[in-house]
Amino acid sequence: MDQLDRRIKLIFGRVFQVDSDLIDDETRRGAFEQWDSLGHLNLLEVLNEEFDLEIPPEQALEMETVADIKRVILDLNPSLNK
Questions:
Q1: Is residue 81 within 8 Å of 4, Cβ to Cβ?
Q2: What is the pTM of this model?
């Protein structure tokens, strides 16, 4: 598991109060009760802070799975692809 995976799993655990081991690339919005529209906004805020990004609204709407989130983060900050 690379550093980006670990960081995202920890963020999900913190934001949604779930076991980070339950998170994988296929985990999708609505997979747990806390990942609703408000939870998504909270997640975006933490991702923006953690990765020093400004995720545009159109990309935020595309973020339905953890894989989508990784793709958006790497599109906005390719240097994280280590």
A1: yes
A2: 0.90
Q: Is the dihedral of CA 5, 25, 64, 39 positive or negative?
A: negative
What domains lie within the chain, and their CATH numbers? 3-80 (1.10.1200.10)
d(CA 49, CA 36): 20
Is the dihedral angle over the CA atoms 24, 28, 31, 35 positive or is it negative? positive
Could you give the CA distance from residue 70 to residue 51 in angstroms, rounded to a whole number?
Answer: 11
Residues 6+ apart with CB under 8 A from 16: 32, 34, 35, 39, 43
Q: 69-78 pLDDT, tens per residue?
A: 999 999 999 8
CA gap 14, 19 in Å, rounded: 9
**pLDDT, tens digit (0-9, with 9 covering 90-100), for 10-32:** 999 999 999 999 999 999 999 99
Distance in Å from the first CA to the final CA of the chain:
11
